[in-house]
Amino acid sequence: MIDNKSLSAALSPALFMGFCLLLSAIAFSPAWAASSEQAITAAAKHVTLGPRPLYLVQDMDEDTQRSRELKAELLNCAAQRNDWQRSPFSIAHRGAPLQFPEHTREAYIAGAQMGAGIMECDVTFTADKQLVCRHSQCDLHATTNILETDLAQKCRVPPEFDPQSGELVNAGAIQCCTSDISLAEFKTLEGKMEGADSEARSIQAYMDATPGWRTDLYAQRGTLMTHAESIELFKALGVKMTPELKAPSVSMPFEGMSRAAYAQRLIDDYKAANVAPGDVYPQSFELEDVRYWIEHEPEFAKQAVYLDDRYAEEGFDYATPETWKPGMQALADQGVNILAPPLWMLLASNPGAGESGNRIVPSVYAERARQAGLDIIAWSFERSGPLNEDGEWYHRTTDAVIDSDGDKLLTLDVLARDVGVIGLFSDWPATVTFYANCMRPDI
Questions:
Q1: CB of 362 within 8 A of CB of 419?
Q2: Potential cystine with 332: which of 34, 94, 243, 372 (Cβ 3.0-4.6 Å)?
Q3: Bridge partner list, 118
Q4: What is the pLDDT of residues 179-220, one digit of tens each?
Q5: Taking residues 40-44, what's their average pLDDT?
Q6: What is the DSSP letter of 372?
Q7: Domain boundaries defined on the chain
Q8: Residue closest to 266 by CA, chosen among 109, 94, 108, 129
Q9: How far apart, in whole angstroms, are the C-alpha atoms of residue 233 and residue 225?
Q10: Tens digit of pLDDT for each residue in 234-271?
């Protein structure tokens, strides 16, 4: 091997400098960049699961026959398999935000590497009506570095400081939206781990708010993406796509764009990229968006997902069908094929099951959805902190019967085998991929 010193001695100074410039030109040429991109996406297609699935298996309780049998099967699978396959049952929720800045290129690459067969871009728009990937139209203050930039003063509610002390005085009110800035400005920002300290007295403290059960280890770079860029990346990764049309935080029509035009533009991006309707699962919390797709884009609407957040409505009780408006059969009659509630709405506790029984069972909501012929996708796995501290929101209906992170796998097993979900959003797709390969290779 010839090092630079030896090469310099062998060549004249002019030739040596020319050689170095040639190498630099190759390294930074568009062809080299394209080759690098192809190598990264090719590498991400090789599924690797890392240590977390086995960690969770080790943490499983063995207090019931089902828990013991499931643990044994998963351990045997982990010991025998080394050819993990991508699965559409594993849906990357915002990429892999347990450890990567959400909705960034880096998070999507990580999600693909962990075997997610479907990737999510939550879709909102900028001031110049360009579609971008963000979980909320107004989350830039919590998910990007905007407050460290001059764009902070363009925020809907910019940071304010005490003129004497220089301390931040409105941490709880700061709000920065994609609709506050142009696409060109949006692309100058960097993603960070989701979090904001609403009581902070400085910008640095405000931004340094990553929950302890997440990490900033992979937050040193976070490349924000447009909706169209996400489509091209997902195509290169060979995964299916599930865009969510996010509710605008501005009055519609916005600069002449109606809500219907917004819903249409989401679909148009897939048509422009020649993506088959069968590779797309468009989502919305607004039933009217799903109805729009059913009427105007029937091929894409076959896999449209109605995200159910009616738990927030007054009088709604997930265990009382009379409070559901519309009911399950009415949704099916309107053309809805896929329903997606938070995972807790699909489960119920069964604390008196005993050693041979099931301590987690399907809810009435889950049973009625299946009776109406609706497919079910649940959200979101691995979104909560350690379960030995608190079951937290995503496990609220089973908190009484689970008490460790390993119990997440029992929850997953009930969702897959008893409820019959066709997919599960996860903040760490490797765990769901692992389960799907071991227990449900058919989905």
A1: yes
A2: 372
A3: 91, 240
A4: 999 999 999 999 999 999 999 999 999 999 999 999 999 999
A5: 93
A6: T
A7: 52-138+214-439
A8: 129
A9: 10
A10: 999 999 999 999 999 999 999 999 999 999 999 999 99
Residues with Cβ within 8 Å of residue 406, at least 6 apart in sequence: 56, 57, 58, 59, 60, 61
Segment 111-131, tens digit of pLDDT: 999 999 999 999 999 999 999
> Which candidate, 418, 435, 402, 410, places its Cα nearest to that of 67?
410
For residues 337 and 374, is the Cβ–Cβ distance under 8 A? yes
Query: Against a cut of 0.70, is the pTM above it?
Result: yes
Determine the pLDDT at residue 252: 97
Which residue pairs from 310-319 have beta carbons closer than 8 angstroms and sit at least 24 positions apart in sequence? 311/341, 311/342, 311/345, 318/345, 318/363, 318/364, 318/365, 318/397, 319/348, 319/363, 319/364, 319/365
DSSP 247: P
Per-residue b or e along 403-423, where b marks 16 or more CB atoms closer than 10 Å to that residue's CB: eebbbbbbbbbbbbebbebeb
Query: Alpha helices, DSSP H only, in 81-218?
Result: 105-113, 140-143, 183-186, 203-207
Cα–Cα distance for residue pair 126/249, rounded to 1 Å: 11
**pLDDT at position 29, please?**
63
**Residues ≥6 apart with Cβ < 8 Å to 94:** 102, 103, 107, 120, 122, 135, 427
Superfamily of domain 52-138+214-439: Phosphatidylinositol (PI) phosphodiesterase (3.20.20.190)
Cis peptide before 179 (omega within 30 of 0): no
CB 361 within 8 A of CB 350: yes
Most trustworthy range by pLDDT among 286-290, 353-357, 401-405: 286-290
117 Cβ contact partners less than 8 Å away, ≥ 6 residues apart: 86, 87, 88, 89, 90, 91, 239, 240
Residue that has been written with the tokens 């996400």 in this structure = 230
d(CA 248, CA 138): 9
Q: Are 131 and 231 in contact (CB under 8 A)?
A: no
